[in-house]
Amino acid sequence: MVALVRPLAAAIAVVALAGPARAQSPVPVDVALVLAVDASGSIDAAEFDLQKDGIAGAITDPLVLSAIVSGPFQRLAIAYVEWGGPAMAETVVGWHIVEDRPSAEMFAAAVRGAGRSLQSYNAIGDAIVHGAALIEHCPCEAFRAVIDVSGDNPDNRSVVPALVARELAAAAGITINALAILEGGPVGASGRPYLVENYEAEVIAGPGAFVIAAEDRADFATALRRKMILEIAGTMPGNMTAAAIGRSGQRLYEASLMPTTMRRRGITGRGRSLGCTVNGYAC
After folding, report:
1. Contact 222, 53 (CB under 8 A)
2. What confidence category does residue 208 fall into, taking pLDDT thresholds of 50, 70 and 90?
3. Is residue 142 classed exposed, middle or buried when 0-12, 13-18 and 19+ CB atoms within 10 A define those classes?
4. For 21, 179, 216, 247, which has the most beta carbons within 10 A of its beta carbon?
5. Burial 225-252 (b: 16+ CB within 10 A, else e)
6. Going by C-beta distance under 8 Å and a sequence separation of 6 or more, which residues neighbour residue 253?
7. What CA–CA distance (Å, rounded) separates 237 from 110?
8. 45-73 pLDDT, tens per residue?
């Protein structure tokens, strides 16, 4: 059971767990991280393999490993979920404890070796519900809990809409971040990418929540690496030290979503591109 995560509403189903992280007693970790990856019909086989290779490369990246061992417990719990159709999110790789390169390589190999789940289209809310239930039953004691949603379209077919699912997850103490894969999509009302605006407005939630954008799936690995460093370090975008942003695809946007009480007082974030330095590392 996650230390700072209260039980979810009864509407969230129990998710069966499998994998090396099973233990008789919970393992203390700095963060329980669910990677919820778009496996919908809009993604062909080559693009999907790029995503899986990006995840495997990110978790074994030296900067990500440095971030992991910088925490008080020097380990994290991580699971890999694929989502797409309504109520079809699936745990493809169950909880793994990552604390060094061999354990990171074990998780990477499990992701690369897993078959693709059968999915249809764009139920992000149900992916959040699934991820929250997975965290609820993590065989760990986590200081923080994060669902990392990546996708190339808005939520439009969920049984539990993303707006509802994110509120349930946030009420349970879970932060939801998003990686928007732009693929040349439209510009929104603010002049920023529409998908970034949508994910800010309807998907992300919790303390320090943010959206990071990749121009396309070829950019996915670099964007995910930056995102994972932030999530593992628990760094809020507004507190980051400015640094060279690098390729234009990896733009980090400050969350425009804040708790309801703060919004009512007129305190709102403005999405803006920020540099990225965490624990002395340029991410």
Report:
1. no
2. confident
3. buried
4. 179
5. bbbbbbbbbbbebeebeeeebeeebbbb
6. 192, 196, 200, 210, 211, 212, 213, 237, 271, 272, 273, 274
7. 31
8. 888 888 899 999 999 999 999 999 999 99
